[in-house]
């Protein structure tokens, strides 16, 4: 009787847990659905009635405008792809090599290096000092490196995850056997460690890539319309549109159409949809690694 009661209670809890997860998933999904629907809504209808899941009038006006001005938005889109790919690859290389080094207890000063890395998670020089260093010492202002170097190139949090993964998920005996067979440090790292670290690398690669894709603050700090507009990414363009809807009309490529009325309200939604599509398409391919990488990388024995 007690066993049957436990089974019934377990079933009730499972149903309740699934119900909560379904409701939570719907609450997370509905804003994206509304975003897509709003992008296909007639601009005047959106201005008068606001956004709705069942708009009174549908329209492709926003997407037609984006297609007609793809010279500006398309360039920003391609720049976003370049920055995301280059930044993510460089971040993975720097993070994995640094984590591999500090995971070796025999490395002189590895504790100091790890402390310096974690210290930056707690304290930093602030926006003013960072801006001065990047602009006047590294001279990355109004260059593509302004979108790559600050913020995401090496995250201490990612270093901790990768280091813990190397320590807990890769047997030291495998590394020692490779060294006995004559493999050098570089060979051990590239031929043994990296192939065994696909889950954690895919995890931090996804997080870093999303960070680069959604970043607009570095462009706000280090890129100006006069000297660095050619490096504007899709998120920076979207931010410019939100600040001033006449940004596209004032662009030199669009000067001839500056007097035309833009589908301001729905165009924001359409650009946002275009901006998030690649991330939504890429995530399913990394999902199987995501939970495993976070779990194994976040546990320390």
TrEMBL record:
Residues 77-286 form the ABC transmembrane type-1 domain. Pfam families: BPD_transp_1. InterPro entries: MetI-like (IPR000515), MetI-like_sf (IPR035906). One of its GO terms (biological process) is transmembrane transport. The chain crosses the membrane at residues 12-37, 76-100, 112-132, 144-162, 183-213, 267-286. The keyword Protein biosynthesis does not apply. It is found in: Cell membrane. Keywords: Cell membrane, Membrane, Transmembrane, Transmembrane helix, Transport. It is a multi-pass membrane protein. Its main location: membrane. One of its GO terms (cellular component) is plasma membrane. Belongs to the binding-protein-dependent transport system permease family. PANTHER family: ABC TRANSPORTER PERMEASE PROTEIN MG189-RELATED-RELATED (PTHR43744), POLYGALACTURONAN_RHAMNOGALACTURONAN TRANSPORT SYSTEM PERMEASE PROTEIN YTCP (PTHR43744:SF9). This is Aldouronate transport system permease protein. It comes from Murimonas intestini.
């Amino acid at each position: 009787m007690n066993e049957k009661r436990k089974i019934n209670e377990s079933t009730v809890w499972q149903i309740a847990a699934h119900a909560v997860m379904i409701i939570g998933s719907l609450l997370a999904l509905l804003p994206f659905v509304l975003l897509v629907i709003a992008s296909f809504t007639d601009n005047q209808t959106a201005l008068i009635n606001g956004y709705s899941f069942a708009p009174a009038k549908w329209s492709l006006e926003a997407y037609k405008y984006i297609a007609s001005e793809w010279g500006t938005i398309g360039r920003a889109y391609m720049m976003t792809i370049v920055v995301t790919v280059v930044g993510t690859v460089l971040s993975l290389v720097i993070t994995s090599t640094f984590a591999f080094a500090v995971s070796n207890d025999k490395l002189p000063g590895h504790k100091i290096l790890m402390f310096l890395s974690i210290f930056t998670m707690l304290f930093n020089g602030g926006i003013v000092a960072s801006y001065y260093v990047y602009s006047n010492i590294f001279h990355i202002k109004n260059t593509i490196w302004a979108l790559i170097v600050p913020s995401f190139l090496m995250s201490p949090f990612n270093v901790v995850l990768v280091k813990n993964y190397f320590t807990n998920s890769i047997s030291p005996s495998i590394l020692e056997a490779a060294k006995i067979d004559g493999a050098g440090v570089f060979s051990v790292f590239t031929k043994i460690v990296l192939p065994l670290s696909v889950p954690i690398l895919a995890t931090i690669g996804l997080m870093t890539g999303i960070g680069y894709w959604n970043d607009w603050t570095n462009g706000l700090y280090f890129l100006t319309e006069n000297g660095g507009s050619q490096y504007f990414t899709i998120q920076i363009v979207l931010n410019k549109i939100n600040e001033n809807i006449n940004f596209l009309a004032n662009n030199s490529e669009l000067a001839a159409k500056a007097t035309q009325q833009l589908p301001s309200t729905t165009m924001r939604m359409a650009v946002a949809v275009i901006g998030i599509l690649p991330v939504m398409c890429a995530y399913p391919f990394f999902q199987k690694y995501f939970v495993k990488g976070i779990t194994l990388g976040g546990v320390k024995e």
